[in-house]
Amino acid sequence: MPIQIHDTLAGTKRPFEPLEPGRVRMYVCGVTPYARSHIGHARCYTAYDIIYRYLRYAGFAVTYVRNFTDVEDKIIKRANERGMDTLALAQENIDTFYADMDALGIARPDHEPRVSTSIDDIIALVQRLEDKGLAYDVDGDVFYDVANFADYGKLSKRPLDQMQAGARVEVDPRKRNPMDFALWKSAKPGEPKWDSPWGEGRPGWHIECSAMSMAALGETFDLHGGGRDLIFPHHENEVAQSEGATGCTFARYWMHNGFITIDEEKMSKSLGNVFSVGDIAERYEPLVLRFFLATGSQYRNPINFSDAMLDEAAARLAYYYETLRKAAVFLAEAHAEHKGPLPGQAVIDGVEARFREAMDDDFNVPRAMDPVNEAFRTLNELISTRKKKKQAAAAAAARLLLDKIRAIDGVLNLFGEDPGGYLERHRQKAVIRRELSVQWIEQQISARIAARTARDWAEADRIRDEMEAAGVILMDHPGGTDWRVLDVPPGAGGEEAGEGEARST
Fold this sequence. Notes:
Four Helix Bundle (Hemerythrin (Met), subunit A), Rossmann fold, about 500 residues, alpha/beta, four-stranded antiparallel sheet
């Protein structure tokens, strides 16, 4: 069965058939770098990163293009407020974007065109539209004439006569139709500008993506992605510009990721509930955010964001890494070579097929995690084998299962960190979230050891109870006392809540 993709234009899932067999051309709208990236960006680019990785896993040669809109009203306004060059501000935020996306394990695309370096392509496309009677010049401003494109509104399912002017479309009495949009804007003081056939100016917002995508991928390509907020007017206008100019289908499949809500309320700057990736990374490992965004909801559905949900994601990811840590210890022990039936063989044989089945159904990562979770449960059972005569078979099975997990992780990109290093960083972030300090924890443990040495059991119990109330769990063993910090308050999380590598004191 081919991959099924929910195509926004068709309004339903369709079998994926790329233009060229075995090759995929994919474009995703990039950021406007006027400020630091927020979790909405993280949701979008995590989703398409996994889609990109899965297409490669499925055997396609993928050309992935994502742009930077480094010339735009918000950047110009912010740069003027700060008294700096527009492109310098954009570069500053692009550098931060890279740092944030790299931390989230998001692969860099094959091509990342910028508006500022694509001006010639943009001007050529505007000229092409004007030559075909789809654009008109008014005093150096060039507008797209939507009434002359018969299919305008087909992506967003909005008939032209029902559309509202003003939704990121400038209301201008010089326009023939209120929904006409700017392709080229005449130069204004304090703005970057370039020479053009219509005088000095800069590109409009929508024309940029049409020009950059077609320059990199051709007049028709396979996948075009972005957030649901871009369906109208941005992607609608991309369709009109591109297909109006070429007479060809622009993108063969349109994909749109869902919104993020904050405690069931839509994220927006006006509500003050927008969190940057950097904000989250101060309290959680970046992979926790990637895991939550990838698995909390299928990419095209909304996802609700809260600290409690991140806590549960942190606990779950710590469980995976603790399993990987224990597996490394188990497999480092000498085990005899094993030939014959293996425990967990059915899981080993079926995990990738079940993963592919879920991912082939419109990249359903939450459902694809079911076989992954079964693989980790089985791995835990294997590495917990204590009977010597069964350990060789368990070790052989564990190695095969780890190979399967690693292959799947080429898509998910969640389990590639060194387990010990990850768990240590995870624990440090858990301490921060509990508003504690490692110094206080170690002082409390030392005080409890002193109380136990003095046989003051009541004081020792009091210290343990105080630490448990703060979320710190103590574990005594012959070599000393270990501790861990609960990610999720008792009773609030799943079966692995709070799992993590212990620390010995």
